[in-house]
Structures are given as C-alpha cells and as structure tokens.
Design a protein that fits this description.
Structural class: mainly alpha
Order of helices and strands: HHHHHHHHH
Largest sheet: none
Strand content: under 5%
Low-confidence stretches: none
Mean pLDDT: 82
Shape: globular
Number of strands: 0
Number of helices: 9
C-alpha cells in the first residue's frame, strides 16, 4: 500500500518544466505577500491556493488535480455565498464537485503508464457546434433565474455559470477546447470579483486567482495544442 502511494507521488511529480516550477513559485509568493500586506480573507487565500494548484496540475494532465479541486470548490462556494453570487454557489456545489468525482474515475481509465498523465483529445466540428448551442440556451436560462433571485451580478454570473458547465464537461472528457472555454470564464470571473472588491470586500486573492487562471488557460492551450499536433504528424 505504502509503495503504491510512493510510486503514485513520484509519477505525479515527474514531467514538470523548470519554467513551470518557477511560475508556480512566483504565483504563491504573490499570494503570501498579498495575504500579509492587504490583510486578505483567509478563506479567499485558501480557495486561491487550492484553485491554482488544481488548474496547474490539471493542465499537466495529472489526476491528483481533483484532490485540490474538491477542496477549492468547497472554500470557493462558501466565499461566493457570502457575497451573493448564488449562480457560482449552485455551480460549484451542484455540478463541479460531482463532476470532479466523476473526473477521477474517467481520467483513471486514460493515463499514460510512464508519466501518469492523461491522453489528450479534441472535439469534432459537430461536437463543437452542439456544445455552443447548448451553452447559449443555458446562458439565457441562467441569467433569467439569477435576475429572479436577485443575484448581485446576474449577467456575468449567468454567463460564467453556463460556460463553466461546458468547461468542466470538456475537462472530464480531456478535450483541448476546455482551455478556450476556461479562458472566457476566467476573464469574466476576474471582472465579476473586481466589482465585488470595488464594493469594499477584501477578496484580493480571489481576483488574483482568476487573473492567474486566465494566464494558465492560454499557456495550457498552447501546450496541449503542441502535443496534439505532434501526435497527428
């Protein structure tokens, strides 16, 4: 049992580039400095840490990302509830957490033995159109519901909620298109939390988290595209 755990940890730590390690160190240094200088919310700091770890490890295609994802989802849900972002609460509690559990079992079936990284895929043109249509319908429904329950930012929250449903689905399916969707989600979420900060709420780490997510979405799209292009040659 112990040997299995040790072997799993070794594989999870392999395949990292020096630039990625430096980038991770820089990100967490900013979070720590931000926590002390701006006296940020402890929940926001923990949520940001778990969320960034999830995104970075998921970008590497390592199944251990879901451990951080589950923890981060719990803390973020609490933070969103306190700030009246009910669409985000429903999204994380009702969808992200169940899908992350599902992702553990799905990714386990598609791991490379040497590195413990997933085999990456991409959607067909027909699948892309289907997801776009479904996401558009869900977007309209979400905005209507959030207006009705007096969400503080119904339009942005509704769009983020709908796109996130597609993003998590694509993550579990190991599709490169997830990074395009996450890029849009991250940009809108960054705007949404900046608006929360403007009202006087100290959640700087959360805004920083979404900014870093945006950068990571671009980075991992490029990296996954390189791998898929090489595979198709």
């Amino acid at each position: 049992m112990i040997n299995t755990i040790v072997e799993f940890i070794k594989k999870e730590l392999t395949g990292w580039k020096k630039t990625e390690i430096i980038g991770i160190s820089f990100i967490f240094a900013i979070i720590i400095i931000n926590a002390f200088v701006l006296n940020d919310s402890k929940i926001a700091i923990i949520s940001a840490f778990c969320g960034m770890m999830y995104t970075i490890i998921a970008g590497k295609g390592k199944i251990s990302c879901y451990l951080f994802g589950l923890m981060g989802s719990g803390f973020y849900s609490y933070l969103a509830f306190k700030n009246g972002l009910y669409g985000n609460v429903a999204l994380y509690m009702g969808y992200y957490i169940p899908m992350q559990i599902c992702g553990i079992f799905q990714w386990k079936k598609h791991l490379k033995k040497e590195t413990n990284e997933i085999f990456k895929t991409k959607l067909s043109a027909k699948e892309r159109i289907s997801i776009l249509l479904v996401s558009s319908v869900l977007c309209a429904i979400s905005i209507f519901i959030l207006y009705y329950i007096e969400d503080t930012h119904p339009v942005i929250d509704g769009i983020v909620t709908s796109l996130s449903l597609a993003g998590m689905y694509l993550t579990v399916k190991r599709c490169i298109e997830q990074w395009i969707v996450w890029g849009a989600v991250n940009l809108l979420s960054l705007i949404m939390w900046i608006l929360v900060i403007i009202t006087g709420v100290k959640v700087y780490s959360t805004a920083l988290m979404w900014f870093v997510y945006l950068i990571l979405a671009v980075y991992f799209y490029i990296e996954w595209n390189k791998e898929l292009s090489t595979k198709n040659i």
